[in-house]
Protein: PIG-L deacetylase family protein
Amino acid sequence: MKVLAIGAHPDDIEISCAGTLAKMVEAGHEVVLCHASDGDKGHYEIPASELVPIRRREAEQAGAVIGSRVVSLGLRDGEIWPEQEEIRLKFIDLMCTVQPDLVITHAPNDYMPDHNALSRIVFDTTFLATLPGASRQHKPAAKVPALYYMDNLSGIDFQPTLYVDITATFGTKLEMLKKHQSQLVWLKNHDNVDILDSVMTMNKFRGMQAGCAYAEGFIQHMAWSRPNAVRFPV
Structure:
């Protein structure tokens, strides 16, 4: 099975669903990691011209931990706009080239504008990519993929419909997240969050709900054609 995980910024995927993705890779599935923005505004001291290549390198290193391809759409922080045609086309082309069976992305009620905008774009373009002529460069996607939302940063107003036991891959998740050193600093400075401790707390909480040591939670999008016969591959 081909799984496409899409985050607004480098490190979003690692925070919310890397343990599950590691399990998918171990099970033999192909996992592609995509971040929409280059994360150019994610540091107080490092200018964007220097930060973008740093964050791209961090994302590549994180993907390499599980042997997954990493794709960047090259947008900028705060500029993920669902109504802009050229941005939608980037996502349509992504769907047409990856041809995913299953897509994981942000929930519509996440905590910041880029995440919420991305959720809408992914919902729209996973369908639009199947239409003839939707892409100017590629053949249409073969099908509308199953769509799952990954947990938001603190689980507020997020009630999972699926839990994945990541006890065996939690260490791998932390290893991937630690590759994003620039963001460990940024989240501490901007939000006063120790993201490693936060992730551990969140995954232990989901694990308590699911009856295991560590878990990640997901919500399946239940619109017509979305709850298809594709099995969540873990």
